[in-house]
Amino acid sequence: MQENILKMLLKENHKVSNSLKIDSTARFYIEVNEQDELIDLYKFINKNEIKYLVLGEGTNLVPPDFFDGIVIKPNFNEVLHDSNNKIINVGASVNWHKLVNICIEKNIYGFENLSLIPGTVGAAPIQNIGAYGQEVSNLIDKINCFDIEKGEFKTLNNSSCKFKYRNSIFKNNSLLIISVDFKTDCKKELNIEYNSIINHMDNIGFKKTNLSLETLSNLICDIRNKTLPDPNIIPNAGSFFKNAEVKISEIDDSEFSLDELIIWDIGNNKVKVGSARLIELVKDRIPKSKNVEIYKNHALVLVTNTYATQAEVLDYANEIIKIVKRFLTLNYKLSQL
């Protein structure tokens, strides 16, 4: 794809799709269908010194009113299998929940707890998506990507991805994910130790003996549908904040007791504190916003009324962070994803 052809494929003043339904426009927009096109795109970006943004399904994006750069929409949708018909390589543009369903059909364990998480396969490693006791980093073998600023194709193994809680090497850098190689040898064990799974099973009288990959996935979909809004109906970007990791002594010095909080012991005299509970405890002190609010069923989720701007969403989120810090009187690491 030569530069003159690339320019023909560029769309100007293109709307930026996002699940918060923020009215956003990009100066340029282009869809990439072949890996070879990335080289020409690299040359164009560097020659014109233009900013860029890689877009999946826009489910974890708070875009500006106008992005003075180029939005890149990869279209890598292949799902390849090994000789045993197990998934081995998945294109970055494949919908995440679609992949979960494919894995369940092929009796591949490990993906079921991550059911119904919005977004694409390529977006999943960036923030190391996780839910109900599982993280995508546990399932990844390696990631194939393209360095937009160097014009180089790269393959990173799991350790090179520097996965952490809701973080990875792919955040805020120039690596565009092309495809992900997943492990196919996870233990054939179902993970149901998470309290919300156990409580939901008890509430509906579901017996452990009836569990399978499919039924566990369905249970998790039920839980998510009850607590998290459908972005197609209520604009949102999913969980907006991370849980905090703090020393127990810091909680002892705060205005809240351990009994009021939801915590998980992570060793070394440190605990992970549930941010949703913290926000619930201080939500009466959070100023009202015209176009943004905390979702009624889940305090980590911010929802909009389709009229919000990037500034309004970020200002509201930062106000929540300030209030949580102020009333806990500790260095609380509540932060945006």
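Above is the first protein from milestone M3; the second protein from the same milestone is given next.
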Amino acid sequence: MFGGVSLSCEAGTFALIDDDILYLKGDKAVRGEFEAAGWPPFRPFGPEGSAMGYFAVPGELLDEPAALQPWVNRAVAAARRSGSGSRRR
């Protein structure tokens, strides 16, 4: 897949870590919020490559769990909406 780490829960993959940067999942419902906050998209093939639906978390936010939590909640909700989570049978 790629040389990073994916973070998943029952809803599916909600975050990636690549090159020591945390990226949270964003979909049509929340993409605008990530963009408005100035979070750049994950571009695994360089600046000219296609953007994926994950957005870079500013480093200073990693030291503020209470401020980060609402963003993580948005990412988990985006993962849930994508329908890629685990399915119990």
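Note on the second protein: The first strand starts at residue 5 and ends at 9.
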